[in-house]
Amino acid sequence: MNTLALRWLLLLMLLFKGLTGVAQDHLYSEFFNSPLYLNPALTGQFKADLRMNLIYRNQWTAVPGNLSYLSASIDYNVPQFGGGIGLLFNRSSEGTAFLTHTNIAGLYSYSVGSDDFVLSFGLQAGVTNRVIDYSKLLFDDQIDPTLGIISGATSAASLLPFNNKFYFDSGAGTNLAVADFNIGLAIQHLNRPNESFTGLTAKLPMRINTHISYRLDLDSYENNMDDDDKSYVIPSVVYYKQDKFYSYSVGMQYKRRGVNVGLSYRSGDSTQPSALVLSLIFDVFTNRDGGEKVRFGVSHDAAMKGLTYSNTAGSTEGSLGYETTLPNRMDAGTPRFEGARRCYEFY
């Protein structure tokens, strides 16, 4: 099979999976740059008052069609209960406008603990729209055997009865930060919504993901050094499972003075190749004392087996984050668990 045929076969497989309702959720290599997508318990878990995150993934650049994924979020830190509230927007486009998902969800988190640990709980609820753009599809009655595609021709093919599908979606999560460990668990699609286009039952499987990180302080002997100036090695493991599909990511980050370099391995299956992921993150403090920070991130996945890199050209992600302190911060009250390690110190 030549390269072009293989690429189109991949595209058709994605479309077929979407029509039958067994597609998996998209996964980000820079999971730490989309914390609300990873786990609703991470809502409001950061130093400043307000945080905004944007991440975009271009999947398999060389495959025909637009395989792209985007998540944008905004959350507010409420110090009185050690958590926050947030809003998450997700959109995926698989194929040249063949199949799109759009989701908007509200999130809430609350924490308990002490100066030794922080245990957070999060809830998520929203609405998802799933649609196929038939104007971008080509049927056999729009093709002339001699002349090829007939310009302006309409097809007699029947539309699916529920082509524009809306459904309620929910999720929950928990996260524990204790000593130098951070451990989290999240479950999405708790209500298992029916996303069928045909009227038959096609329930969306729950997505379960767990994550664990460890922070090793390389400058622990420097008692007078500020934490933001120290060097850290942060190994992490993330495991995803949705129906029969599962994937895990094992990697390590080196972090020093706002520069974060990461290398990880992500496993694959019959439709998703395993990959080696290189990431580079920059934290720019525009006002360190005021808690204002801008984060830029980029990463690239290189397929290791299964689908070759020459067929896919890998996948690329870009992310942007911003944190700021509001003028009324001094009136917000004393932050809870001020002496404890928090989850945001692990990414």
From TrEMBL:
It holds the Pfam family PorP_SprF. It comes from the Bacteria. This is PorP/SprF family type IX secretion system membrane protein.
